[in-house]
Amino acid sequence: MAFAIGKRVGTAVVRNRLRRRLKEALRLDAPLPAGAYLVRAQPGAVALDFRSLQQHLRRARASVTAKSSGRAAEVS
Predict the structure, then answer these.
(1) Would residue 76 count as lying in a domain?
(2) What is the number of domains present in the chain?
């Protein structure tokens, strides 16, 4: 699992805090299927509370899982 958090998101302290929050949200969720994943954080991710961050990651994960199994999924 890799995280891409650009400088537009904020200072190094803000980016590192967001990276830690993303790691924890993924750790608390069920394990990902084998493979390489890249999570690219948008500037608005900093303002999300932890529960919303988890929901966004779950939707993204469902989208990736659906695409790999041949089903179409829509993430808003």
Answers:
(1) no
(2) 1
CATH code of 12's domain:
3.30.230.10
The pTM assigned to this predicted structure is 0.76
Radius of gyration, CA atoms only, the chain: 13
Per-residue model confidence as pLDDT tens digits over 32-70: 766 677 888 888 899 999 999 999 988 888 887 777 665
Residue 48: strand, helix, or coil: coil
Tokens of 50: 């932890």
Cα separation, 72 vs 49, in Å, equals 28
CB atoms within 10 A of CB 41: 19
CA angle centred on 1, ends 70 and 44, rounded to 5°: 90
3-state SS of 9-46? Answer: HCCHHHHHHHHHHHHHHHHHCCCCCCCCCEEEECHHHH
